[in-house]
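Risk register update: the risk of archive-format incompatibility is retired. Evidence:
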Amino acid sequence: MAVRTRPDRRFSLADVANELLDPPVAERFFAAAPNVESAQSLFRLNRELFDRTVNYRVFELDTGVWVSAPLEEVGESVHVERAPAAAAEGAPGERLRVEGNVVQDRLSARRR
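Archived output:
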């Protein structure tokens, strides 16, 4: 999502890897490029296509629960909060809080 909201309209895969990803993830991301020239070539993000393609954020909780939320609801009815215990210990940790009225309740054989 950071790529989507960047004011720069042109950047490279190397820019994304170096500026937005943690080093172990950046290394794997950069290694997926076919060659160095490709990784360093500038491209323009098509925001409309991005919005049509990536429009849900999916959370997996430590309880085995999966939550799929439209991106526009993250920060509105879906809140990702720093866990108080994790903040006190300096460890990473987030909690998910969701509020809304149930409009459908069903059983399913698989996650959608």
